[in-house]
Amino acid sequence: MIETDEANGFKIKERKGRKKLFMLPRVTILEFHHVSVLLWECIENLNIKADGIYIDGTMGGGGHSLEIAKNLTTGRLICIDQDQNAHEAAKERLKDHLDKITFVHDNFGNIDSILDSLKIKKIDGMLLDIGVSSHQLDEAERGFSYQQDAPLDMRMDTSKSFSAYEVVNKYDEDALNRIIFGYGEERWARRIAQFIIKERQDKPIETTAELVEVIKKAVPKGARKDGPHPAKRTFQAIRIEVNGELDVLQRAIDNVANRLNPGGRLCIITFHSLEDRIVKEAFRKQENPCICPPQFPVCVCGRKQTARVITRKPIIPSEDELAVNPRARSAKLRVLEGVEK
């Protein structure tokens, strides 16, 4: 059976009672272009209970949130995002379910304080879609994209003052090399850092186009022939630094695992290998937190399992999804489940 979901703007197939993505064109709500990656895989793995408490920690345009809300009756959905534009778009998309939803303008890394403020001790599930959203990439003035000229910004939360401009123009060579190599896994990191330092001696680097030109000069011509855009990894690294994304991700996993009810699920979508490794390792430690030397016959450290890993290998997008949403190509979904503590 094929049905149309007008609210999300796509069609789906249903076979043997299971829904699969069939067509997913771009939709526009309040100028917020949003495509929900691995949507049905997330909904299936959240194991939603109608009376449960769920969190969409990276609400974006509300595509995932909408499907979670549809599955709730007396349950509650907490929608978190640090981007105010996301809240405006999502509230419109979720307008038929507002009685079930609490909106929070914050970073999901603060999940403990958010839940404490809402007087919620335990949850039945949480979804995190890590990284930059389609809207943030497409909105040129936000400065996330290396394909559009804009002021250097890259702030997911525009109420904060620290931006990509400060990273590019105030970090020394060693610091630039550290983040470009560490967060971008860029082999030419040192050379790019040196070229940035040299370029800004005359005047500050103020726009994304100016930074792209510096990077192109730094990366040897032969290395620019194949592979991704030469600025892709550097832009990724600077964005991660500006928003503290990796520290937030690690902290959130630890905190959420302690908040999961037995059987509750944490679903995390990542888009590059660095994030995926963090999630994989953090999940492993929740399942097996023991730090005793391997030669010890029994555990004496006293650390107890808080969750178990559901996905030994990550779930990836189907060919149908990739055909209509190429940005999903690098997406990986991993799932953790709470246990009795």
Describe this protein with a few key phrases.
single chain, 341 residues, alpha/beta, Rossmann fold, DNA polymerase, domain 1, 2 domains, seven-stranded mixed sheet, three-stranded antiparallel sheet, 13 helices, 37% helix, globular, disordered N terminus, rRNA (cytosine-N4-)-methyltransferase activity, transferase, SAM-dep_MeTrfase_MraW_recog
- Estimate nothing, just give the exact number of structural domains: 2
β-strand percent reads 15-25%
**Mean pLDDT, all residues:** 88
**Secondary-structure element order, N to C:** EEEEEHEHEHEHEHHHHHHHEHEHE
CATH architecture of the largest domain: 3-Layer(aba) Sandwich
Strand count, sense and barrel status of the largest sheet are: 7 strands, mixed
Low-confidence stretches: 1-11, 20-33
Give the end-to-end Cα distance, rounded to a whole number of Å. Answer: 42 Å
Which quaternary structure do these chains form? single chain
Q: Give me the CATH superfamily of the largest domain.
A: Vaccinia Virus protein VP39
The number of helical segments is 13
What order do the strands of the largest sheet run in, or round the barrel if closed? 8-7-6-9-10-12-11
For this structure, the CATH topology of the largest domain is Rossmann fold
What is the approximate shape?
A: globular
Sheet/helix structural class = alpha/beta
Instruction: State the total count of DSSP E strands.
Output: 12
- Share in helix: 25-40%
Indicate the radius of gyration in whole angstroms.
Answer: 21 Å
Assigned CATH class of the largest domain: Alpha Beta
Protein name: Ribosomal RNA small subunit methyltransferase H
Catalytic activity: cytidine(1402) in 16S rRNA + S-adenosyl-L-methionine = N(4)-methylcytidine(1402) in 16S rRNA + S-adenosyl-L-homocysteine + H(+)
EC number: 2.1.1.199
InterPro entries: RsmH, SAM-dep_MeTrfase_MraW_recog, SAM-dependent_MTases_sf
